[in-house]
């Protein structure tokens, strides 16, 4: 007697796709909230924090990609030793944002009995269908990536908040290029 291949039904694939999309978008929402906290902590003080957060970060043109660029600037120009301590972080954060965009904007469906991300790609005036299988193994890799990125963001936020507590005694702005907050 041969082994029976574990094939998902169409309904199971549809449910898996919904779970995957929801999980990726949910995890990236947590990442975006931490980006907002760090950017607010860096560029504002207690008096301007609420206004900065709602007016600046709440603006639609201040999207996730732009928040990434701002955080990258902060990390590369204002945190001494950041690249050495977290050499993969910015690339991993970028990957999280790309995954979020793929799951939020690409069509998720079943293809050859597998949950699959489907999109159209143009290259040299030709349109091609691009298919990416979304397996449980891939989702586990994504979960690990999200958790890793979120951990670094939380560490950064705590460091900025600690710095601000110490600076309240005389300095009202976050660290300068010579600061070592991590």
Descriptive overview:
- The protein is an alpha+beta fold and 182 residues long.
- 61% of the residues lie in helices and 13% in strands.
- Strands 1-2-3 form a 3-stranded antiparallel beta sheet.
- The termini are far apart.
Task: Looking at this protein, list some descriptive labels.
182 residues, 3-stranded antiparallel β-sheet, single chain, alpha+beta, elongated, 6 helices
Task: Summarize the topology.
Blueprint lengths: L9 H34 L5 H9 L6 H15 L3 H4 L3 H17 L1 E5 L2 E10 L2 E8 L2 H32 L15
Order of helices and strands: HHHHHEEEH
Largest sheet, in brief, is: 3 strands, antiparallel
Strand content: 5-15%
Radius of gyration: 21 Å
Class by SSE composition? alpha+beta
What's the short version?
This protein is α+β, with helices and mostly antiparallel strands and 182 residues long. The chain has helices at 10-43, 49-57, 64-78, 82-85, 89-105, 136-167; strands spanning 107-111, 114-123, 126-133. The radius of gyration is 21 Å and the shape is elongated.
């Amino acid at each position: 007697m041969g082994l029976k291949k574990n094939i998902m039904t169409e309904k199971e694939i549809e449910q898996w796709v919904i779970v995957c999309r929801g999980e990726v978008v949910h995890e990236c929402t947590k990442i975006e909230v931490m980006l907002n906290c760090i950017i607010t902590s860096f560029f504002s003080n207690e008096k301007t924090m609420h206004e900065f957060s709602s007016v600046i970060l709440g603006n639609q043109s201040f999207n996730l990609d732009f928040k990434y660029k701002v955080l990258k600037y902060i990390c590369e120009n204002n945190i001494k030793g950041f690249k050495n301590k977290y050499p993969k972080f910015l690339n991993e954060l970028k990957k999280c944002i790309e995954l979020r965009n793929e799951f939020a904007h690409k069509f998720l469906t079943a293809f050859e009995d597998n949950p699959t991300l489907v999109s159209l790609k143009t290259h040299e005036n030709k349109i091609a269908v691009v298919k990416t299988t979304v397996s449980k193994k891939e989702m586990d890799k994504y979960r690990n990536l999200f958790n890793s990125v979120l951990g670094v963001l939380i560490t950064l936020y705590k460091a900025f908040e600690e710095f601000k507590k110490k600076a309240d005694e005389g300095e009202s702005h976050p660290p300068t290029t010579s600061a070592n907050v991590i």
